[in-house]
Design a protein that fits this description.
Number of strands: 14
Strand content: 5-15%
Radius of gyration: 29 Å
Shape: elongated
Number of helices: 21
Distance between the termini: 35 Å
Strand order of the largest sheet: 4-10-9-3-8-6-7
Length: 596
């Protein structure tokens, strides 16, 4: 069976490779059946059949699902150790049962049954994932599993409805009960010592070979190695914190000023206290925003009105996200790292680093949940601010984005400030992103997901207006930037794979005050001339450097939309972590062309 799976999903192999693999699987199969043969247990007994079922799940699942996902682009691939693991797992499980059942049939049933159920749930979850998203789990699917916080996971489960959730829990309970029942066998005569010793030796051998922490078969299986890779990447993010001193030691920043005079960063105060606000949206797609695209009703009344003020507001109609999830998108947006320079996150400077070096006090206010010990890159950057504050939940309930407005009262208007406001925005579940009273007051109909999504954008528009008016009234607002981390397709369930350009078409606009335009005329002219330019949000770091009008050894002006040197065009920009070309976004076609 294992050899058949290998041949089916690795076509075009050389004859010597085929023969070598055949011998390996043959030897593995002989070893795996030895515990059954030595213990005298019938190969068709319930415990043996249960062990075989779990083993076949591991042997087949990842290979088949990977093939169904990638066959068109990959005729063969590294099948990891799933086949070998499945073969040896049968020997390990049957040996475990043979050793425990003579001591206590009940203990054997529980120990082996629980182990088999735990092992079976992993490939069964892979199958459920494929049934839901029509793709094999990959890094884009594994990352949210590790980066998602509890309340978001609860919301995701609730989105399936009570019936599906109960069905899933029932299925898990049935698998567990079935495995335990299958492994219960009444006590028999047991094995003789000359049987027990070799079975015990085989169990020890299988245990070492299968479960070694670094080089065992289990950790080299497809989905497990994927999990380990993503987990190790997340751990590497923590180096960002430990390497901060080294990054800042080599960081040079100077302010260009009125005539590009190269004023030292410490003289930022000479221009008088002012504030720049950067608002990070969540899951907002410009295709559903009236300020960018015609809608059944005005989903962005304030933004639509501000768009008519072309002297101060610049709306960019061709902005895209670089990824389809918050963490990989903002990891690039907030730092030097982007799709075009190949830099590592842990060694990259951030917008916060640049702003603080330029004399700004950085205040970070977020309505996203704080991740804590499993810090994401976004949390790591936020925590380098002078102060970083997360909205507290009340009674376990997520607060609305309007709760961020009050934090602006804590910002000192006598300082130069960079204020970052991170919204919950239009994150699924959309109906939870705005108060029911707001919907009633604004005569918003609460129907399907698309209507609720538009309502959430309407509420975000209201929140942006609050931010703008308060910052202008009390903080001498000079510039305000709004962009979303990624887009969304509200009439489709969230998926880790690329389902269309709505997932990456984002809103972006910039406000520039009269005072800012007087102090930075070149930047203002450049941005106004670029209303129709193409842009991906992993270049927000460079954009903010341009808006702060700095010169730095960690700032590439050729990637800044605010610089005359900006080099990117529709033909050169990428999305989906560099896999999709922006130029293939045809609003009248669903054709996608992956970058080779």
């Amino acid at each position: 069976m294992g050899y058949g799976v290998f041949r089916r999903y690795n076509m075009g192999l050389a004859r010597n490779s085929i023969g070598q693999q055949f011998r390996r699987y043959l030897m593995a199969s002989v070893q795996a059946v030895l515990p059954v043969c030595l213990s005298g247990v019938c190969g068709l007994s319930a415990p043996a059949i249960a062990a075989m079922a779990v083993s076949l799940l591991w042997l087949c699942t990842y290979n088949i699902l990977y093939d169904k996902t990638h066959r068109a682009s990959s005729p063969d691939y590294d099948n990891h150790m799933d086949i070998a693991f499945g073969i040896y797992l049968f020997g390990w499980l049957t040996a475990l049962h043979a050793l425990l059942s003579p001591v206590s049939p009940a203990a054997a049933a529980v120990a082996v049954g629980v182990t088999e159920a735990a092992l079976a749930i992993i490939p069964l979850a892979e199958i459920a994932y494929y049934a839901t998203y029509k793709v094999c789990v990959d890094d884009a699917g594994m990352a949210p599993l590790l980066n998602t916080y509890f309340s978001e996971a609860v919301e995701f489960v609730k989105s399936f409805g009570i019936s599906r959730s109960v069905l899933a829990l029932t299925a898990i309970a049935l698998v567990l009960a079935g495995c335990i029942a299958a492994n219960y066998a009444p006590a028999a005569g047991g094995m003789q010592w000359w049987q027990t010793l070799p079975v015990a030796a085989l169990f020890l051998y299988f245990s070492i070979y299968i479960w070694k922490p670094r080089h065992g078969l289990f950790v080299r299986c497809g989905v497990i190695s994927l999990y380990i890779d993503v987990r190790n990447y997340n751990r590497s993010l923590r180096r960002y914190r430990t390497g901060m001193a080294q990054r800042l030691a080599g960081l040079e920043v100077s302010l260009k000023g009125l005539a590009g005079s190269g004023l030292p960063a410490s003289s930022a105060e000479d221009k008088g206290p002012h504030t720049i606000v950067m608002v990070i949206g969540e899951s907002a797609c410009r295709d559903y925003m009236s300020a960018f695209t015609e809608q059944p009703f005005d989903t962005t009344p304030w933004e639509s009105e501000m768009k008519r003020d072309g002297e101060h507001f610049i709306f960019f109609k061709n902005a895209y996200s670089c990824a389809m999830q918050t963490v990989p998108s903002l990891e690039r947006a907030l730092t030097e790292r982007n799709q075009y320079n190949g830099k590592d996150f842990s060694s990259s400077c951030s917008i916060v680093d640049i702003a603080r070096k330029a004399g700004y006090t950085v205040r970070w206010f977020s309505n996203q949940s704080y991740i804590g010990i499993n810090d994401t890159s976004v949390t790591l950057v936020a925590n380098t601010s002078d102060t970083a504050t997360w909205v507290k939940k009340v009674g376990g309930v997520q607060q609305f984005d309007t709760s961020l407005t009050g934090f602006l009262d804590d910002v000192d208007p006598a300082r130069n400030n960079l204020v970052v406001l991170h919204l919950k925005g239009s994150h699924f579940n959309y109906i939870n992103r705005y108060p029911e009273s707001y919907a009633r007051e604004n005569h918003l109909h609460q129907g399907d997901d698309v209507e609720c999504y538009r309502n959430s954008l309407h509420f975000t528009d209201h929140v942006l207006r609050q931010f703008f008016e308060k910052a202008r009234q009390r903080l001498n607002l000079q510039a305000m930037v709004y962009f979303s981390d990624h887009g969304g397709i509200p009439d489709m369930r969230r998926a880790p794979r690329f389902l269309g350009f709505k997932m990456v078409r984002i809103p972006m606009w910039i406000y520039l005050s009269d005072e800012y335009q007087r102090l930075h005329p070149s930047v203002a002219r450049t941005l106004k001339a670029r209303r129709d330019a193409y842009f991906t949000n992993d270049l927000v770091y460079e954009l903010m450097c341009g808006i702060m009008d700095v010169a730095s050894n960690r700032y590439d002006e050729t990637q800044s939309l605010a610089s005359p040197k900006y080099r990117h065009t529709r033909d050169t920009l990428l999305t989906y972590d560099g896999r999709i070309r922006v130029k293939d976004d045809d609003l009248d076609s669903d054709k996608l062309h992956c970058k080779e």
